[in-house]
Design goal:
With 320 residues, the protein is an alpha+beta fold. The protein has helices at 19-34, 45-56, 58-61, 65-68, 92-109, 122-137, 161-171, 178-186, 208-219, 267-270, 295-304, 308-315; strands spanning 78-80, 88-90, 190-194, 197-201, 226-231, 236-242, 245-249, 255-260, 287-288. 39% of the residues lie in helices and 13% in strands. The strands form two sheets. It has a seven-stranded mixed sheet, sandwiched between helices. A two-stranded antiparallel sheet has the order 1-2. Helix 1 (19-34) runs parallel beside helix 5 (92-109) and helix 2 (45-56) runs parallel beside helix 6. It starts with 18 loop residues before the first helix and ends in a 5-residue tail after the last helix.
Length: 320
């Protein structure tokens, strides 16, 4: 087992292994995780898991039916690409198993990680998701039920049926914001968008870390900028974000604050403490709402097709 993947997850799984053997290795790897073979603070297993995902998706990347539909056979099998499988056929049952195993591996890889974050576990997981998403979208949890192992051992890492099913549903989503919405939902936040304004709601107290986190994540899908309001138990805040500028409104103060945020800082990291007095990078003095939108906000509103008076009316509508 250590020869194939390495307990320290440092040895690459060679592509020439036939797909059925790769599935066996994946099965053994999941069993090791369920047995608690890695210490709680040892995340070296993530590298091995990502290599296994890459190995399982090699056929799809090689141009099989999942990629272009050109090599599908009448019996549902597909041609296995690469050195080990040129001309070989992947039986339909094996392909279904592969897709389900990929879903389980990805579920495990996403534990303590997100698809939209920038942490040390987030970025590799997001890259693996990009590669494996097409397979996972075709998966059925029942095809890998034997890998959904109850957590009976100390330090066990296991995937639950509900987690795998939720990941499959996410892979099937056409909405480019699906990953962000899923991440926010995992943090107890609801995200909806109406006429260009995103509304994030939850039971949080300080809305500043929430609105800037959501703006940064959602802004990756809006080159022209994004408008976000976060509403908690008793407070709300609004942010307009188009890198490198963030325009913030934080009642009860009715003033716009504009910040310039450049890498390696992010909107999320800059406001994570929730204290405006400690945030550097402000551009100019705060501007009252009656003075009109700051230039950065004016540009974002024009891109969104939302007039400034309409934005103010929506933000301060009765009951808000």
């Amino acid at each position: 087992m250590r020869t194939l993947v390495g307990r320290d997850a440092s040895a690459a799984l060679p592509l020439p292994l036939p797909l059925p053997l790769r599935l066996v290795v994946a099965h053994l790897f999941v069993q090791l995780l369920a047995a608690g073979a890695w210490d709680e603070d040892d995340h070296s297993w993530r590298h091995g898991l990502r290599l296994l995902l890459e190995a399982l998706t090699a056929e799809a990347e090689g141009g099989t039916a999942e990629a272009d539909g050109s090599t599908a056979e009448a019996d549902g099998s597909t041609a296995e690409a690469g050195p080990s499988g040129a001309g070989a056929q992947i039986p339909h049952e094996t392909r279904r198993r592969r897709d389900a195993v990929a879903a389980v591996l990805m579920t495990l890889l996403l534990q303590d990680a997100t698809l939209t974050g920038g942490g040390e576990h987030d970025v590799p997981a997001a890259r693996a998701w990009t590669v494996a998403r097409a397979l996972i979208a075709c998966a059925e949890p029942a095809e890998a039920e034997d890998l959904l192992i109850p957590p009976e051992q100390a330090r066990a890492r296991v995937a639950a049926w509900s987690e795998v099913a939720r990941l499959i549903a996410l892979a099937q989503e056409d909405d480019p914001h699906a990953e962000v919405i899923e991440e926010l939902a995992g943090a107890g936040l609801s995200a909806t968008c109406e006429d260009g304004l995103w509304e994030i709601t939850g039971t949080f107290g300080n809305p500043l870390p929430v609105v800037t986190r959501a703006a940064e994540r959602l802004g990756r899908h809006h080159a022209g900028g994004v408008l976000v309001r976060a509403r908690g138990r008793s407070r709300w805040a609004f942010a307009a974000w188009a890198a490198p500028h963030l325009v913030l409104l934080s009642p009860p103060a009715r003033v716009w604050r504009t910040y310039r945020i450049r890498p390696p800082a992010t909107a999320e990291s800059r406001f994570s403490g929730g204290d405006l007095s400690a945030v550097p990078g402000r551009v100019g003095a705060p501007a009252p709402l009656r003075a009109g939108p700051p230039q950065a906000l004016r540009t974002i509103l024009a891109e969104a097709g939302l007039p400034y008076p309409d934005l103010i009316r929506r933000l301060f509508a009765p009951g808000i």
